[in-house]
What we know:
Layout: E1 5-9, H1 18-30, E2 35-39, H2 49-56, H3 60-75, E3 77-80, E4 84-86, E5 98-102, E6 108-115, H4 120-128, H5 143-154, E7 165-167, E8 170-173, H6 175-178, E9 202-204, H7 215-220, H8 224-238, H9 243-260
Parallel strand pairs: 1-2, 1-3, 5-8
Antiparallel strand pairs: 3-6, 4-9, 5-6, 7-8
Helix pairs in contact: 2-3, 3-4, 4-5
Amino acid sequence: MIPKIIHYCWFGGAKKSGLIKECIQSWHTFLPDYKIVEWNETNSDLSHPFVQKAYQQKMWAFVSDYVRLDVLSKYGGIYLDTDMMILKNFDALLNHQCFFGAEDKNFINCSIIGCQAGFQFIEKCKLIYNEVINVNATKEITIPKLVTNEFREYYAFKDVFTEILKIDEITIYPEHYFYPLPYSNKWDLKNYKNYIHIRSFAVHLWSSSWVPNSEFQDIRNGYYYVGFKKVWNKIKRDKKINWSYIKKIVSALKTSLTNEK
């Protein structure tokens, strides 16, 4: 069985936002008998070359990508991103040897991973980082892409993740179990409860605390001062503004005003 341990990562020492604190509180609410461990600079093994490079460049997400696999391999348990809101108890998931959730029909996401200690596929995913040379190739080395590619190659899997999939003691849940709020709709965070499915164990809120919002995301979310300040800074920097950019601003503003009704 998967042990009742929740792992999460917090590198860089920044203060946790209200949203993140709310998510972590949901873990305590629905998982009262689980041990919750924060992995940070004081208790993590940061000796891997990839991790050292990422840490030096303050790429906290990439540090977390490796550390989550490392601690799961060593101790087993369930890893959670800090923006994962829990909706029900996880005991029904503990009988798996390993589980993931798909964020859509094509990609496995890694904001929640559960496994027993020493699980072979987790070890294989860790080894990928021995071959990563350029830590700045951010689009190529995101953990969902790496894990999905490894899964498809290792198991010669060419289908989509639209149903519960079980292969070689790994279970992949379709998106409505952990990712009912689509990435493409992350701007609609305020209304995330409208996306929850009866089968949802959790909902990933796509806060990406290490990635700053664009001006459009800020405006959609109602942070007008922050959003329009970014617009003004872009105009000053570029000395011009095109019609396409204006249409995106107007669209973001319309979305925000619609959500407030």
